[in-house]
Amino acid sequence: MGGPPRTRTVWRPSRARQPPPGGSPAARQAAPGISRGGRAILADKGEIAMKRTLHFVGVVSLVCLAVAAAAPAHAQEWSAAQKDVWKSVKAYWALDAKADVEGFMAYFDPSYVGWSYDSPVPGDKATVKKFITQEYQMSKTLVYDIKPVAIQVHGNFAFADYYYMQLVKNAEGKTEEIKGRWTDILMKEGDRWMLIGDHGGRIRKAD
Q1: d(C-alpha 207, C-alpha 205), whole Å
Q2: What is the DSSP string of the chain?
Q3: Whole-model pTM?
Q4: The domain 75-202: what is its CATH number?
Q5: pLDDT > 70 in the chain, percent
Q6: Is the sign of the CA dihedral 19, 22, 26, 32 positive or negative?
Q7: How far apart are CA 164 and CA 54, in angstroms?
Q8: Cβ-contact 185, 193 below 8 angstroms
Q9: Residue 74 phi/psi, 5° resolution?
Q10: Beta bridge partner(s), residue 157
Q11: For residues 6 and 1, what is the distance between their CA atoms, to the nearest angstrom?
């Protein structure tokens, strides 16, 4: 990928008493680096052009198939149940962006246990509240975007996989771009989906 197709040399057994294509030997010169006396005979220009075209078409086809395979993750139509799950995910992300501690934590079930990339061990609801309270005092979300990749619903339980991007003003007053991914594990309680677990967080350059 990323470079011009390579010219291919076609290997054929030599045939006795058969003049080379194009008339006498003098009428056709050997290509540089290719021995005319051995078995290697460079294919004519038409054949080379055809092979290069087929090679190019093959590469383009593979790229198109790869794009088509990845597209449904973002372009698929969600079911009513999946949309209901995503509605809750968007709701608590909006509360988080507003630095609404109590509103955000209201989406955490008391049994919640989550594990972020930055934490050496899982944390419970109380741990999350302690850290986000401090985080809200040190930084401010300017804008964010979340994109669902997969949502699975099994009765009153669901899994939501998604990417996120944030522009955050940090404690030094500088704007920082943060990207990451989360898998949220949710349980239906009344009219909302509550977090009972999650895994993910910021994606560092080394990840």
Answers
A1: 6
A2: --SPPPPPPPB----TT-PPTTSSGGGSPPPTT--SSSSB-PPPHHHHHHHHHHHHHHHHHHHHHHHHHHTHHHHPPPPHHHHHHHHHHHHHHHHHHTT-HHHHHTTEEEEEEEEETT-SS-EEHHHHHHHHHHHHHH-EEEEEEEEEEEEEEETTEEEEEEEEEEEEE-TTS-EEEEEEEEEEEEEEETTEEEEEEEEEEE--TT-
A3: 0.64
A4: 3.10.450.50
A5: 63
A6: negative
A7: 40
A8: no
A9: -110, -25
A10: 154, 187
A11: 11
Long-range pairs for 182-185: beta carbons < 8 A, 24 or more residues apart: 183/159, 184/89, 184/159, 184/160, 185/157, 185/158, 185/159
Give the per-residue pLDDT at 205: 76
Please state the domain extents for the chain. 1-70, 75-202
